[in-house]
Amino acid sequence: MPTNHDKNLSALPDILTLQQACDVLNCHPNTLRAWDNKGLLKAIRFGARRDRRYKKEDILKVLNQK
After folding, report:
1. Residue 1 to residues 4, 7, 15, 60, 65: CA-CA distances in angstroms?
2. What is the pLDDT of residue 23?
3. Residues 6+ apart with CB under 8 A from 56
């Protein structure tokens, strides 16, 4: 039976902002930036500011590794 946590994760969009990804993983934004720089969790970069976005499936993979 799905838990509330599972329901919340399924309600997330397919592409998450840096802050949304941090909220799901319970980590600091600088941690995700470092992981991106190391290639551990690659971000999608877009726009003139090169903002980071993360695929929900990649975030879920990281959660399942914990």
Report:
1. 10, 10, 26, 18, 21
2. 96
3. 9, 12, 13, 14, 15, 16
- Please, what's the b/e burial string for 31-53 (b: 16 or more CB within 10 A of its CB; e: otherwise)? ebeebbeeeebebeeeeeeeebb
pTM: predicted TM-score of the whole model, two decimal places: 0.83
The domains of the chain, with CATH numbers, are 4-65 (1.10.1660.10)
pLDDT tens column, 6-48: 557 788 999 999 999 999 999 999 999 999 999 999 999 999 9
